Amino acid sequence: MSRWTAALVGIVGVAAALAAGHLVAALVGPSASPFLAVGNTFIDFTPSPLKDFAVRAFGTYDKLVLLIGMALVLLGLAVAAGLLSRRTPTPGTVLAAVLGVVGVAAVLYRPDLGQLGVLAPLAAGAVGIGVFRWLHREALAERRVEGRRSFLIAAGASVVAGLGGQFLGSRTDVEGSRAAVGKLEAAVKAPAVPAGADFARDGTPSFITPNRDFYRIDTALSVPRLRAEDWALRVHGLVDRELTLDYADLRGRDLVERTITMTCVSNEVGGPYVSTATFIGVPLHQVLREAGVRAGADQLFSTSADGWTAGTPVDVVLDPDRGALIALGMNGEPLPVEHGFPARLVVPGLYGYVSATKWVVDLELTTFAAKRAYWLERGWAERAPIRTMSRIDSPKGLSRTGGRVTVAGVAWAQPTGVAKVEVRVDGGPWRVAELSADAGDDTWRMWRLPLDLKPGGHTVESRATDKSGFTQPQARVAPVPDGATGWHSLFFTVE
Ligand SMILES: Nc1nc2c(c(=O)[nH]1)N[C@H]1C(S)=C(S)[C@@H](COP(=O)(O)O)O[C@H]1N2
Ligand SMILES: [Mo]
């Protein structure tokens, strides 16, 4: 058969396999879809330096880049398998079988899938082999498949099965469930954000980050879709009484509101992975006291619906003054699906990877010696308090401005609070910047300093001092293993 025909047979065979897997996955668990399962497993096995590079280079688009990359690799394999199979269907058959086995391995490795999940890659392998061999036979007999009924049926059925799987898999009505939750009323309201808590007009972010702008970091290729009605949280391990709490139980308690700035450990100096929201939920220490934490437990090991895990020091989450929450809502609405609906943890002062489990379903009281959480296996530190940090938001690096320019930015030092931010230009003396109204120690604080500069190039640097008197150090340290340090510095030109 012609090269073109051979390549087409390969492509339609692989497409049929993926579509069949996607459709069966919709029935046994959407993340069993071979494409997603392989992608998710790939994420888990990616060496840390590559993962850190992907986050740096592509930011929140890292997963889109991965999906597109995987699609291109598959397309390449499909074309290659087709071309190798111009005489006999064996090479293509072997490729389909290998892809099926890879899919099965990926599904078995996923912690969030039951044994039934393997049905999806098995169906993918079987359908892929069947369709490939069928089209191959037709192509050998007719010298071509394009335009033949078998080819049109296979291609059309793949599209229908793929779309059907997508529709069925996303039919879990999460948005309906979120809407049904309605307004979460606080028994203890967060203090109102004071007037003048940001310098947004000078280029800082708004004090509260709207939900759609809140930074997002997680390992989930497809966001877990849980309904509040089906959700439950198990508390167990070194406790006097195991608890299983459902959504109605939690929301029926006296809900507490707290405004908290969250930060990601992989944020570079000057980076964007920091945002602030008013969260509402149940104080974590209350639930843990109810379960009765036994002596010897030093780690709260939390697990999400997709199997991701975090380990948080028990003394931190038991401290009522720290204010850790099982959060149900943020900024006046139930948690958005990407931010952990129906429930997540939020612990002021700790980086997200050791505290902020989204889609949380399991809390185990244990020890750091006994269990290691997701990112620890990948080179990040066991304990990770947030580092005192400042960032310059305006002017932008490499921009051109007039001589009268206000330098402005944000600083954070949860849970200690920001006491001072200093700015210097061209290595000159440090000058104290004006701080925005103090909204509490668990949130960021904005700063600004008007300058009058001569034309030419200038370098501006900032450093924060927290309320314990600790000043952000100059030494540049990379985010791995427990958060970046160093002064943010940028260059701009006065015209
Ligand atoms: N289930 C789950 N929860 C998770 C993560 C994850 O990958 N999976 N990432 C953590 C990290 S590294 C951070 S910084 C915060 C980010 O929360 P956000 O996406 O709501 O900003 O979530 C944490 N919770
Ligand atoms: Mo993070």
TrEMBL record:
Identification of the protein by name: Molybdopterin-dependent oxidoreductase
Database matches in InterPro entries: Ig_E-set (IPR014756), OxRdtase_Mopterin-bd_dom (IPR000572), OxRdtase_Mopterin-bd_sf (IPR036374)
Pfam families: Oxidored_molyb (PF00174)
Domain Oxidoreductase molybdopterin-binding: residue ranges: 221-371
TM spans (from-to): 64-84, 91-109, 115-135, 151-169
Tagged with keyword Transmembrane: yes
Protein's organism: Saccharothrix mutabilis subsp. mutabilis
Presence of the UniProt keyword DNA damage in the record: no
Keywords associated with the record: Membrane, Transmembrane, Transmembrane helix
